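Lab channel / #folding
Pinned by the channel admin:
"Please post every new chain as: sequence first, then the structure tokens as a reply. Keep commentary short and put observations after the output so the thread stays searchable."

First post following the new format, from NK:
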Amino acid sequence: MKHHKVWIQRSATPEDAPIPSTWAYRRKLGANNQVIEYKARIVSPGGQGHSATASWIRHPGKYGPRAEESHLRAAPGPKRLVPKREDTFLFVHVDDLVIISQKPEIFKTEMELKFSIKYMGKAVFLLGMNIERTHDALLINQTQYIKRKLAEYDLDTLHPATCPLAPGQYLKKATQTEIEELRKLGHNYCALVGLLNYLSVLTPPNIAYAVSSLSQYLEALGINHYYSAVQVFQYLSGTRHLGLTFKKENAGGVKAFVEADWDNCPDTCRSVTGFAVLSGQHLIAWKSTKQPTVSLSTAEAEYKAMSDVGQELAWLDNLITAIEINAMPQAFQLLVNIQGAIDLAKSETSQNSFRTKHMSLRLHFIRELLVANLIELKHVKSSNNAADILTKPCGRSSINRSLAQLNPLTGSKPALPLSPRSTAGCWNETQTPNPKRLKGLDPCPRHQLEKDPVQSTRDDKNKQLLETPRENEESLLNRTTNQLNNRETSSEVPLLARISEQTKQT
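Reply from TO:
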């Protein structure tokens, strides 16, 4: 406007009676909702008794002179210079602060003018989290915190478990007998669950479902619930090195795995929602919770879970927009393993159909996200859904497969004082366990055979075989042949003799 000489700037006089003015800002969006231009207009508020306004008009022509002059008070200018892109981020928890900045010295100088601050150096341990830096990554885990809590509750002497809960072990309300048994022991179950909840929301996503299940029985709790909580601590004892990894690389887009376990709760028949959100290969959000209402089908349960993760993705889109103002919007991938839920979300006519009219309107929030091109639905096999461990108790094979997709491995595996012990059923649930392998679940090392008492005749024979020196092949063959020939059944002698003769020739 100054270039086109829309106004002439001069000092105000008492006879001018200028019209007040203010700034109006707007962002112009393109076809894909990306910001293509920022606009600023000078406007006059209404109700001032004047009809003249001034706006930013791009026009190559000249403006003709006005017969009547109008006086406009200059709009307020900037009081401080604000950079377009933030270069300093501040994390505050009570009186603990973490500064993330390219120039932290400038921030320190400004803060010291107002506050008395004690600097602890680079962030290494914060709120129970170990922070380790490498040349290209940031590693976060809670190894020391888990180790300290295991010792605090005298759980560090137990064998590590291979899974948080045994597959198929769905917790339910305790009976009166189980409640009385726990009261006699006097253990603080609520304190254990509180510690597990703090751990599950920070670094290890593999215990999220177990903690969610344990948290539902803080009132009607029994001895079985306490043993389940102890098993989760045993699992953490062997996997405390697991955490989150953040590398210096392009994010590669945002994707989310979503899963729902239908009719999960034996007490209420409600389903469980689980989802995990990744930015590239980095896990940034996860959740495991019981749905508030009963679902009539697996597709309905999955549809509810999709609406929940849709709210998380909508918030994440607002966060990305606030941090990266000029970022190009890209549809988030939502990976679902139920095709019926995908068809329901994409359908435009089934909202009031017989099968969906009982659903709450908030569940159809996912359709608005599809119309706005914020998310993109894709089908994925159940075996490739990383959110599977967030909806049900899984075996160690499923846990390892999901963790490989979520990429939360950090640090080196610690040396354990005791070897991990498999719990009942904690094998690959897609295969039938070998009975011989299941018999070996109770560890009995060979070097302890002499110390342990003999439990059966078979164990006594095994002990004798271990202590007997190895005989040469000839003497062993002769002794075996003599024992077989001395049997009372005469019909077996020719056959045994032939076998003995063939063995000698061999």
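NK: Confidence is low (pLDDT under 50) at residues 49-57, 427-471, 488-493.
TO: also worth noting, The CA atoms of residues 262 and 285 lie 22 Å apart.
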